[in-house]
Amino acid sequence: CPAYSIYTTCSRACPLTCDNYLIPPQVCVLMCKIGCECDEGYALAKDGSCVYPEHFPPQAAEKSCSGEAETGLRRAYFPTWYCDTKSGACKRFVYGGCGGNGNRYATEE
């Protein structure tokens, strides 16, 4: 099992992931799944590792210079840039992690 997880003979059929962490599945088939389950407070990343919410990997999004800056679903602090379509200028904003849109860039260029 990866770090921050345990092996169990009855893990959740619908594990918490970066995509569903804020709104966990309400309806899930009640069945046991043999395997690894992330420790309490951690969620399953797409690469199979268990990560703490502040360390969720950024979600891949198609790059775009349209729409408003979206801070994402988390409360992390990632200084980033977005393209302001009204002024045509690059502007800074803080991306919190998980979600958002493609109007997010690591640098002003």
From TrEMBL:
Q: Residue limits of the BPTI/Kunitz inhibitor domain?
A: 65-109
* Top-level taxon of the source organism: Eukaryota
Pfam families the UniProt entry points to: Kunitz_BPTI (PF00014), TIL (PF01826)
Keywords of the record, alphabetical order, are:
Disulfide bond, Protease inhibitor, Serine protease inhibitor
Gene3D superfamilies named among the record's database cross-references: Laminin, Pancreatic trypsin inhibitor Kunitz domain
By sequence similarity, the record places it as follows: Belongs to the venom Kunitz-type family. 01 (intermediate) subfamily.
What's its job?
Serine protease inhibitor that inhibits trypsin at a molar ratio of 1:1.
What is the official name of this protein in its record? Putative serine proteinase inhibitor
Top-level taxonomy: Eukaryota, Metazoa, Ecdysozoa, Arthropoda, Chelicerata
